[in-house]
Amino acid sequence: MQKNALLVGGSGQIGSAAAHALLHAGWSVTIAHRGTRPLPAGLAENAASLPLDRADADALTAAARGHDLVLDCVAFTPGDVAPYAALAGEVGSLVVISTASVYLGTNGTWMDAATGDDDFPRFPVPVTEQHPIVTAEVEGYSPQKAAMERALLAVEGLPVTILRPGAIHGPGSPALREWYFIKRALDGRRRVPLIDRGESRFATSATAVIAELVRLAGEHPGRRVLNAVDEPAPTVLEIGQAVFAHLGHSAEFDLLPRGAGGPDSSVGQTPWSVPVPVVLSMQAAREQLGYVPLGSHRATIGPAIDGMLAAVADTDWRERFPGLTRYGAEAWFDYAAEDALLDG
């Protein structure tokens, strides 16, 4: 009998990738979404569409009941767990997307609580799922996601797999960090400064990797928490090289120490430039799900780059990707400051 899956918030980047992976594996897929945007290409013809307000707990419970797999891409707070409390024994496998930012640094801080290098969280290399997570009962992305995880695991008998991705990349991303390098290629930049000598590592996660873990968790129900990242974790230099290689662009990387441009300079500061490594282990996924890595960041980044280029082909990138602007992307392209530092 064909297995069926319900993807909540399934029209976004993770849900779309999971839908493609499940359809390819022979699953029947229903994409539940608010209906504010059309389904991505290739899904409207092959997956069912279900208008659903995620905030309507009763509607979500009713929609989820009886499915072999339910993927929730948008759950955020402990309150979002309520619709699943009555579903123990009534869904085959529940998969919920969390975040690697729930991990608590050994110095007592976490990602969105850090204000600079001094209080950026420190982690072992690599971070395993047994590492402590944030327990502070405060507002904020990481504390709320951590509280959501605890609430899910407190539901007795619920077969839930919690996935913790890092910096997500893939088609349909609202904040494609690789734009840092893509735009430089489009602008013909031949020298690219990188602080930390290009050695920074902040775990990346291809949507294809997350989708594969969703599929495997659907086939192997259980109660578990798993990291969901690319292996190996690329350095900033390797990310830049991968983007330029895909685009056929040639450039020299200027590998600078942190702070080379002064305390207030953003020159060479990329979206992945963190003062200490953030590297996650995938050993548990291999052991518990039989996960086989799909490939490195370099092997999986191509579709994200192509999607980004297609999206900005006839519009300004600031309008097409407002999330990038909110992320501070305007400061990434101060070419005058770069040239002054590199030529000085």
TrEMBL record:
Transmembrane segments: none
InterPro entries, A to Z: Epimerase_deHydtase, NAD(P)-bd_dom_sf, NAD(P)-dependent_oxidoreduct
Pfam families found in the cross-reference section: Epimerase (PF01370)
NAD-dependent epimerase/dehydratase domain residues: 6-200
SUPFAM superfamilies documented for this protein: NAD(P)-binding Rossmann-fold domains (SSF51735)
Name of protein: NAD(P)H-binding protein
